[in-house]
Each structure stands twice: as C-alpha cells, then as structure tokens.
C-alpha cells in the first residue's frame, strides 16, 4: 500500500475512532444519569452488561470496535497494515475500504468462518446425541412413574374397600 493510501486509511480510522469515543462517552453518561450517578466503578458496569442491559451491550460492542481500530492504527505505525495475518498476502483495497480494521484477506476470513461453522455443527450434533440419550432414560423414568402411580391408585382403591 502506498504512503498516500496509508495516510488516507489512517484518517478514516482516526475519524471512526473519534465518533466511537464520543458515542461510548454519551452512552456511559446517559447510563450514569439514568442510575442517578451511581454507576461509578467497572464492577457495576460489568454487572449491568451481564444482566443484559441493552445500552451497555451496545457500548461494549463499541469498545470492542474501538480496540480493533486501535490495533489497525498500530499496524499502520508498525508498517504492516493491510497485510493478511494468516497468509501474509495483501488485503484487497475494496475490503479495507469496507472494513478498515480487517486483519484477514477475504479467503482467509471465509476459511475461518467455515471452520467456525464446522465446529458449531459438530457441537450441535454432539448436543443432539446427548439429548437423545438422556431422553431415552427419561422415557424409562416416565414408565416407572406411571407404574408407581398405578400402585398408589391400587393402594387407594384397597383403602376405600376396607
Ligand atoms: Zn489471507
């Protein structure tokens, strides 16, 4: 990538960074106001994230993107921006324009997603087999419960007779 283009990407990244920073700041401020300024430490923020607070979840996403932007800026400074971390080939400019903090070229990204998908399918299959196994035993349990129920009914019947 030429110096001029690098400078361009750096500006795009810095712009994005500033917008995100403002956004994150706004969100935290709004959140703090909504909680009467009680939100002061990271533990409270973490617990609201764990409780699924949407505002916080979005803020966390923003922070994650900020980190990716920071990394991309560091790569520009280190002189290996726009090179695929996996195969070492240059990442296409169109891709970098779309995702300025991309670390993988298109084919490596696809490969990664395929692997992720395969992992997921194997996991689902495993869970399915596990559930099938346990459903068989729970079926047996139901039969035992039915038998037990009949026994109780027989007992009650006998009781009434006496
Ligand atoms: Zn690659």
From TrEMBL:
Keywords: DNA-binding, Metal-binding, Zinc, Zinc-finger. The keyword Metal-binding applies. GO terms for molecular function: DNA binding; zinc ion binding. Pfam families: zf-dskA_traR. Residues 81-114 form the Zinc finger DksA/TraR C4-type domain. A zinc finger (dksA C4-type) spans 84-108. PANTHER family: GENERAL STRESS PROTEIN 16O, RNA POLYMERASE-BINDING TRANSCRIPTION FACTOR DKSA-RELATED. This is DNA-binding protein. It comes from Candidatus Jettenia caeni.
